[in-house]
Design brief:
This is G6649 protein. The protein is of the alpha/beta class. It binds manganese (II) ion (MN). Manganese (II) ion binds next to loops.
Length: about 260
């Protein structure tokens, strides 16, 4: 039976799946943020120049050990609340920044579809028919422009996330729904193009189903936890290009 740690390391194959799809779309200007040493080494050896340790963004190590990946733990909160801090580094340097979870497969380049000249472009994570009404933004895909408004929102996002001990998505929706919605220039992508993982499952989506008129721009393996569940969902959706079990990291790098 594979160890728990081995299954955590195997999540890197879900990341490899994302990278394979992005490269197939001709996207080259991506960085993957690595929150543990084993993942960093594995991805750096295969995609030199693209793998960056989280500490390079934050100036310190955060979290420790396998608790990093366990939803609901304090270490997970620390990691998930770090997201606005990562984004701030890029925005302060004057660049637009697009965040994508790696438990996704891009079938179209988001930047070919997203409107420009918005503070933020987002996707919805609800089962509501109209994405504008849900109040449940998915923080797994967000595109920011470095405006003063955005920088101040991200500061608030980080503070509220840490204060509430919640996760990045709960904190984002709390501030977005409360007040920011009125001030931000935002756009929410249509659910037909950016459905969540639950909706995909409900519709039994498969990319190989040539009879289906439905052509989502991404597949997001959310609404399920862990390597095996996410990988199986991506296989069922006919978008798995993350390689075989035997490709997963074999050496376990202990935490410093
Ligand atoms: Mn995700």
């Amino acid at each position: 039976m594979p160890s728990k740690f081995s299954n955590l390391l195997a999540l890197v194959l879900v990341g490899v799946n994302w990278i394979t799809h992005a490269e197939a779309l001709g996207i080259t200007n991506w960085l993957t943020l690595c929150e543990d040493e084993a993942t960093l080494q594995y991805l750096d050896s295969r995609y030199p120049g693209h793998a960056v340790p989280a500490s390079a963004f934050l100036g310190k190590r955060i979290g420790k050990g396998s608790a990093l990946h366990e939803y609901g733990t304090a270490a997970f909160s620390e990691i998930t609340c770090a997201r606005p801090a990562y984004l701030q580094v890029v925005l302060r340097a004057g660049f637009n920044v697009l965040w994508s979870d790696m438990d996704t497969a891009w079938l179209t380049n988001f930047l070919d579809l997203a409107p420009s000249s918005r503070d933020v472009v987002m996707v919805d994570d609800s089962m509501e028919e109209h994405e504008e009404n849900s109040g449940n933004i998915c923080t797994g895909l967000m595109y920011f422009t470095p405006t003063d408004m955005v920088k101040s929102v991200l500061e608030e996002w980080h503070r509220v996330c840490m204060e509430d001990g919640s996760n990045d998505q709960t904190a984002w929706n709390k501030i977005f729904n409360a007040e920011r919605r009125k001030k931000l220039q935002y756009h929410i992508m249509t659910k037909e193009l950016y459905p969540n993982g639950h909706l995909l499952e409900t519709r039994r989506y498969s990319r190989n189903d040539t009879l289906s008129a439905w052509r989502p721009a991404w597949v997001h393996a959310n609404y399920r936890v862990g390597y095996h569940n996410k990988r199986q969902f991506l296989i069922d959706s006919s978008v798995w290009q993350g390689g075989n079990e035997s490709d997963k990291p074999s050496c376990e790098v202990p935490d410093q």
